[in-house]
């Protein structure tokens, strides 16, 4: 199966033959907002497919930048990092991205963990 906000596509088990297409009638994406902790718990089971998921599209800009530039789109490590900062201040990532916006590529996951005082 492949899905997005508008369609659900069904393929055969080998993925080569297209079987059906369903249009989602309850598409109200402008009002859809998922909480980040619910998203992370749900994505732990499919962390390799995080970039194609609806949950990834609901990440904030700061979360997307950190995942792309620091964690190099490694969903499993990013989810573990987000779970460790669960009880930190809400604007911690926003402050980090704003402060180091021109140097994000130089950071590693260990650097950001030390910045957030984890471990």
How would you explain this protein's 3D organization?
With 119 residues, the chain is of the alpha+beta class. Helices cover 39% and strands 11% of the residues. The protein has helices at 36-43, 54-57, 61-70, 75-84, 92-99, 109-115, and strands at residues 2-3, 7-11, 18-23. The protein has a 3-stranded antiparallel beta sheet with strand order 1-2-3, with no helix packed on it. The protein contains 6 helices and 3 strands. A hairpin with a 3-residue loop joins β1 (2-3) and β2.
Poorly predicted ranges: none
Number of helices: 6
Query: What sequence of helices (H) and strands (E) makes up the elements?
Result: EEEHHHHHH
Average per-residue pLDDT, rounded, comes to: 78
Strand content: 5-15%
Give the class from helix and strand content and strand pairing.
alpha+beta
Gap between N and C termini: 39 Å
Computed Rg: 17 Å
- The strand order across the widest sheet is 1-2-3
What is the element layout, followed by pairings?
Layout: E1 2-3, E2 7-11, E3 18-23, H1 36-43, H2 54-57, H3 61-70, H4 75-84, H5 92-99, H6 109-115
Antiparallel strand pairs: 1-2, 2-3
Key traits:
3 strands, three-stranded antiparallel sheet, 11% strand, alpha+beta
Write a short abstract of this structure.
The protein is built from six helices and three strands, in the order βββαααααα.
